[in-house]
């Protein structure tokens, strides 16, 4: 009986040790399945010809190229991206995913590739001085459903938080007076306001500088190494900076100073 148990244990250990790494699956498939919103400019969105474009799209495409596979993009609302990743619908999410302890318990992450902070968005003619989330007590604040900013807003006492599928919806409500302010990524705001063509402006930065990285299923060390190698190579040879400056005018892989709480 003990011998039989030992054989079972050895078989289980052996099966675990030789379990296929995600890198093997991607290489055999010949494509890297990449999920993003497709409605999150300037990170990822559809141009006038309905083609995916943006900072994250270019970064993900370059990662796939360096892995010698084709990029295969899948779009979904933000609220479904991490759930889809967890269920194995795609390999990675390249959509400015903040690295949090809660997410690290479920996923592994690449090295950070962008740094930014949260920032308020207000109407262009706003006379009230909202310096932080505490100033919004009793006021209505719009955020993206399931985002870091939604969690941040809900943690602020007395703020009436309204969640939306994406930025276009809450920017419209903000412009028409249904909201007092909105909250999103400081890197996104100038582009989003310009594209929306609404009477809005960037407000005060709030919270700490956050690191964004690429999540994927746990237990795939070879895959993680390959993703990090691609990102590291892009930073080393100037490719990353070139893409970043194109979309933001700065290198977003460099952490800025902390914002005010």
From TrEMBL:
Residues 31-250 form the Ionotropic glutamate receptor C-terminal domain. It holds the Pfam family SBP_bac_3. GO terms for cellular component: membrane. This is Probable amino acid ABC transporter, periplasmic-binding protein. Keywords: Signal. It comes from the Bacteria. PANTHER family: L-CYSTINE-BINDING PROTEIN TCYJ, MEMBRANE-BOUND LYTIC MUREIN TRANSGLYCOSYLASE F. Residues 1-19 form the signal peptide. It comes from Chromobacterium violaceum (strain ATCC 12472 / DSM 30191 / JCM 1249 / CCUG 213 / NBRC 12614 / NCIMB 9131 / NCTC 9757 / MK). Residues 31-251 form the Solute-binding protein family 3/N-terminal domain. GO terms for molecular function: ligand-gated monoatomic ion channel activity.
């Amino acid at each position: 009986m003990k011998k039989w148990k030992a054989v079972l244990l050895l078989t289980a250990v052996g099966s675990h040790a030789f379990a296929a790494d995600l890198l093997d699956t991607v290489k055999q498939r010949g494509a890297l399945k990449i999920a993003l919103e497709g409605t999150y400019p300037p990170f990822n969105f559809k141009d006038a010809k309905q083609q995916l474009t943006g900072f994250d799209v270019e970064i993900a495409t370059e990662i796939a190229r360096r892995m010698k596979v084709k990029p295969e993009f899948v779009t979904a609302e933000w609220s479904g991206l991490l759930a889809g990743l967890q269920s194995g619908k795609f390999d990675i999410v390249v959509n400015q995913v903040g690295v949090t302890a809660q997410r690290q318990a479920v996923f592994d992450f690449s090295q950070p590739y962008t740094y930014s902070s949260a920032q308020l968005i207000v109407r262009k003619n706003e006379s009230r001085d909202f310096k932080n989330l505490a100033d919004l007590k009793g006021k209505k604040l719009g955020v993206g459903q399931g985002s870091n900013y939604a969690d941040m807003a809900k943690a602020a006492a007395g703020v009436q938080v309204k969640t939306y599928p994406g930025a276009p919806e809450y920017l419209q409500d903000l412009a028409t007076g249904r909201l007092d302010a909105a909250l999103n990524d400081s890197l996104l705001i100038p582009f989003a306001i310009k594209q929306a063509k609404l009477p809005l402006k960037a407000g005060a930065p709030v919270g700490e500088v956050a690191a964004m990285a690429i999540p994927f299923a746990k237990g795939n060390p070879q895959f993680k190494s390959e993703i990090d190698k691609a990102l590291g190579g892009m930073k080393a040879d100037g490719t990353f900076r070139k893409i970043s400056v194109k979309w933001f005018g700065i290198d977003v892989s460099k952490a800025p100073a902390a914002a005010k709480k």
